[in-house]
Amino acid sequence: MANEVKFVKDNATSLTISADAFLGLKCSGAGSMQVEFSDGAGGNETVTLTVKDVIGDGVEFKRAAQAMANSLGGHPRDMVANIVYTPEELVPHVLTLADSVEGDFVHRDITAVSAIES
Q1: 74 within 8 A of 5, measured Cβ to Cβ
Q2: 27: nearest Cα among 43, 50, 54
Q3: 69 by DSSP, 3-state: which?
Q4: Tally of CB atoms within 10 A around 3
Q5: Pairing relationship of beta strands 4-10 and 94-99 according to DSSP bridges
Q6: What percent of the chain has a predicted confidence (pLDDT) above 90?
Q7: DSSP 8-class letter at 42
């Protein structure tokens, strides 16, 4: 079972979805990143994030995209080889990638969740 990722725009709007449903991400204009997921019913869920664009050459977007891809891909930075896990330890986890309410983001160049659309 895959880990889930969470995006929070405000107290009434959020999305928690399986990381396996990730379809891709793209630049949707200066300072804007769209992250797409399959909703499992033939449609898509799209999260639009605000990304810093101070330098104007895309460096901030690239770094934010790398952090997002590493998180969605389950990059095993904290895993140690040859560990045997019990079934209780295999329970999926929810990783918050962007939370505008708490101000928590997977990368410092992501500054807000501007939209969550189905």
Answers
A1: no
A2: 50
A3: helix
A4: 15
A5: parallel
A6: 56
A7: S
Query: Integer distance in angstroms from the first to the last C-alpha of the chain?
Result: 23
Could you tell me which residues come within 8 angstroms of residue 80 by beta carbon, excluding any fewer than 6 positions away? none
Q: What is the pTM of this model?
A: 0.82
CB atoms inside a 10 Å sphere around CB 18: 15
- Residues facing 75 on adjacent strands: none
Number of helices (H) and strands (E), helices first, in the chain?
1, 8
Residue 90: the pLDDT is: 61
pLDDT at 54: 85
Amino acid identity for residue 43 in this structure: G
- For residue 108, what is the enclosing H or E element? none
